[in-house]
Amino acid sequence: MPLFNEHPLRLSLNDEVHARPPVPLDTPEFVTYLAFLHHEGSAGREPRHLEALAEQLGLNPPPTETGHVFIDAKTFRLKWERHNEFSSYTFFHRIRPEDSAGENALLAVPASWRKDIPGQLIAATHIELRAVTDVPPDTVMVQVSPHGKTLVAAQVAEGAGWVFTDFHIHEDGFSHFLLVDAGLTPRQSGRMVQRLVEIETYRVMALLAFPVAKEVGRLLARAEDELADLMDGLEQARNTEDDRAVLARLTRLAAEVERSVALTTFRFGAAAAYYRLVGQRIEELREVRLPGFPTVREFMERRLTPAISTCATIARRQEDLSGRIARNSQLLRTRVDIELERQNQELLAQMNRRAKVQLHLQETVEGLSIVAITYYASQLVNYMSKGAKHLIEPATPEIITAVSIPLIAALVAISLRSLRKKLAQESE
Asked: What does the alpha-carbon distance between residue 179 and residue 199 come to, in Å, rounded to a whole number?
């Protein structure tokens, strides 16, 4: 087979498609899912924490470079995955006949280790996978909800399973799902559990933007009022100083809004992405509605969709306000520039008038200079002619002086004109 110049990422990109497959599950099974937000460098401490667990269990250190690890500790199994903003820990524990009610997969994990998991807990879920013969769906629906809360119920996988939950955090700090196996294969069960925990995680991650949207909404309300006041002030401005004062306030407001945009764009974008993932995972459940009970899709449309719509509206409103401020700033800058141009034109006109006056003064000074130079030069001629009066006879010093005056004046005028032309050429 010929050798090709292979891209260095070809294998890793191909393996990424097959990475993080769902864990096949044999009914009955306890599943506990934890998601921890990365906080203050917690992501960097996770590999060492996983190595510590493997050391306690007498296993080889797991490779964490790929961002996903599977550990089989016999009494439980752990699937760890690192995502952009959080890391997830899914624990699996096979239900045995001696297990009592209320147990979960987390109880098989060393307590000291699970208490020190790095990060901030954002989602915690217990899932109980039971056979339809052990937990008939009719009995669950008759009980409705032991906590008096709305029960979400639906058939999934085209009738091969049943899902029951109320999406509430119970007294133990976990939300609870009951997945009843009515014909699911082990891989189907694993995929169904993975979709349920992803729905639970992504809906919470999407809602991280909701408090941000509330805070930004208050900022936008104040900024919009201030922008309206500034535009009113712009109409009432009478001079350039007023325009500059309005422009300074508008620039400060623009900086404040742009800072908010920079701080919240990622969060709003992430919320939209997580919300789309929730919709995709719900679609993959292939729900069949049960009479009298809302499905997971109906619950999310009623509870989650309004919050995400609010976030999207605030994001659009923020971008719109930023654009309005930019347009008004440009308008005001144009107005200030036009006024400055008018002032510059007036200044140039004044400079032109001053230049003309200076030219007239210069011409006057040149005329006076010719007279002065001619006077002093004629006096020199007069003194010289007096000293040589015997040599110039029959001419007299007075005649010589009188004759020299127009000659001297003409010579000085020609010299000054030549000098002025030379200076003009050099300036050009």
From this structure: 14
pLDDT for the residue numbered 163: 96
> What is the Cα–Cα distance from 108 to 31, expressed in whole angstroms?
11
Q: How far apart are CA 412 and CA 375, in angstroms?
A: 11
Parallel, antiparallel or unpaired: strands 161-165 and 152-156: antiparallel
* Residues 76-98: b if buried by 16+ CB within 10 A, e if exposed: bbbbbbbeeebbbbbbbbbbeee
**CB burial class (10 A; 0-12, 13-18, 19+) of residue 152?**
buried
Whole-angstrom Cα distance, residue 307 to residue 212?
A: 11
Kindly report, residue by residue over 81-137, the tens digit of the pLDDT: 999 999 999 999 998 877 776 788 998 899 999 999 999 999 999 999 999 999 998
Q: What stretch of H or E contains 294?
A: none
Q: Which of 275, 257, 276 is nearest to 314 (CA)?
A: 257
Task: Tell me which DSSP letter residue 91 carries.
Answer: E
Are 91 and 32 a contacting pair, CB within 8 Å? yes
Instruction: Report DSSP state, residue 64.
Output: -
The DSSP code sequence of 335-348 is HHHHHHHHHHHHHH
Report CA-CA distances (Å) from 255 to 21, 248, 261, 264: 46, 11, 10, 14
Q: Is the distance from CB of 187 to CB of 174 less than 8 angstroms? A: no
pLDDT in tens, 160-173: 999 999 999 999 99
| Cα(337)–Cα(112) distance, integer angstroms | 69
pTM of the model: 0.77
CB 71 within 8 A of CB 53: yes
**158 Cβ partners below 8 Å, 6+ apart?**
286, 288
Calpha distance 127→271 (Å, rounded): 25
Q: Give rounded-to-5 percent helix, strand, coil for the chain.
A: 60, 15, 25
Residue 211: phi and psi, rounded to 5, are: -60, -35
Task: Answer yes or no: are the C-beta atoms of 99 and 113 closer than 8 Å.
Answer: no
Please report how the helices 186-207 and 305-387 are oriented relative to each other, as an axis angle in degrees rounded to 10. 50
Residues 6+ apart with CB under 8 A from 425: none
DSSP 304: T
Q: How many CA atoms lie within 13 A of 101 on its CB side?
A: 2
